[in-house]
């Protein structure tokens, strides 16, 4: 990876229709900047985890995350839940 070149991924999970979260968006460089900007515009919490993004960036859009990432992604969703709770106060 080129130093300073960002990577970003957006996850989506609808427990009524999906068995696991999917990759909603993924990219690096300007695309990563656009993903991050869109999240900021929509008050979506952002978690920086360089190890996790390296793995998520290898997945395709609309691909279900592999089972071995469930724990890491569950921690991401827990972070988002806590951030949402903090914003509502």
Summarize the structure in words:
It comes from Virgibacillus natechei. InterPro entries: T3SS_substrate_exporter (IPR006135), T3SS_substrate_exporter_C (IPR029025). This is Flagellar biosynthesis protein. Keywords: Cell projection, Cilium, Flagellum. The structure is a single chain. The chain is of the alpha+beta class. It has one domain: secretion proteins EscU (name from scop, 3-Layer(aba) Sandwich). The protein is 43% helix and 15% strand. It has three helices and two strands. It has helices at 30-41, 50-56, 70-88, and strands at 7-12, 22-28.
Could you tell me the radius of gyration in angstroms?
13 Å
Helix content: 40-55%
Architecture, according to CATH?
Answer: 3-Layer(aba) Sandwich
Overall residue-averaged pLDDT value: 88
Percent strand equals 5-15%
- Tell me the name of the CATH class: Alpha Beta
Strand order of the largest sheet: 1-2
What form results from the Cα inertia axes?
A: globular
What name is given to the CATH topology?
name from scop
Distance between the termini: 39 Å
What structural category arises from helix and sheet content? alpha+beta
Topology as a string of helices (H) and strands (E): EEHHH
How many strand segments?
Answer: 2
Number of domains: 1
Number of helices: 3
Contiguous runs where pLDDT drops below 50 for at least 5 residues: none
Biggest beta sheet summary: 2 strands, antiparallel
State the fourth-level CATH superfamily: secretion proteins EscU
Protein name: Flagellar biosynthesis protein
Keywords: Cell projection, Cilium, Flagellum
């Amino acid at each position: 990876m080129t130093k300073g070149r960002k990577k970003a991924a957006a996850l989506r999970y609808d427990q009524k229709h999906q068995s696991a979260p999917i990759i909603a968006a993924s990219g690096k460089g300007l695309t990563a900047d656009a993903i991050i900007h869109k999240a900021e515009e929509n008050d979506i919490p952002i978690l920086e985890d360089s190890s996790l993004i390296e793995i998520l960036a290898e997945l395709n859009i609309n691909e279900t995350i592999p089972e071995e990432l469930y724990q890491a992604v569950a921690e991401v969703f827990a972070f988002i839940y806590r951030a949402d709770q903090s914003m509502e106060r």
